[in-house]
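Page header: ASSEMBLY MODEL / two components / 223 residues total.
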Amino acid sequence: GAGVSQSPSNKVTEKGKDVELRCDPISGHTALYWYRQSLGQGLEFLIYFQGNSAPDKSGLPSDRFSAERTGGSVSTLTIQRTQQEDSAVYLCASSLNNIQYFGAGTRLSVL
Amino acid sequence: ILNVEQSPQSLHVQEGDSTNFTCSFPSSNFYALHWYRWETAKSPEALFVMTLNGDEKKKGRISATLNTKEGYSYLYIKGSQPEDSATYLCASSGSNDYKLSFGAGTTVTVRA
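Prediction written out in full:
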């Protein structure tokens, strides 16, 4: 079956621009996570959606970051007024039980 | 969020040789330890999920052990092949916590 799909795979943007990253989770998976990996760092938790519950936004680094999940399926991560330190690989994962299944990520480069 | 550390950061292995590397995590409030393999331009792939002290899991030439009392896990690759080249990530979760705390990974390069 189809895995977690993320788009775009690469995004180059100018400092100050807004970007939107998309995640299509595995069908039927109720939980969805966003992570990012900055150079030399481990995967950093950003936000967690579970069914209809309020999302856990505790990992979002600033109020420039927001995410939504429409209809319990597709999720978008929005970064407003991008900064160079936002450059990273942004990964999405979905899960039904204890195992998280990841997409291939979006590599964001802010110039 | 738990503090997970992996060492070494990178290693180079000759094809056919065996190797191993470490993941350490806080042993208090531990629930599960996950290992993932992340090849360039691909999705991280789940290898193992372990919960019990003394657990050993095996998948082909790759195996892992878990010591929850001292807070470490080893990943072993036997008879390394070029296709084993990847970054290996470990992640830990605490009780009643859905969040995974990841280490920075060990990048393995297998030379033919």
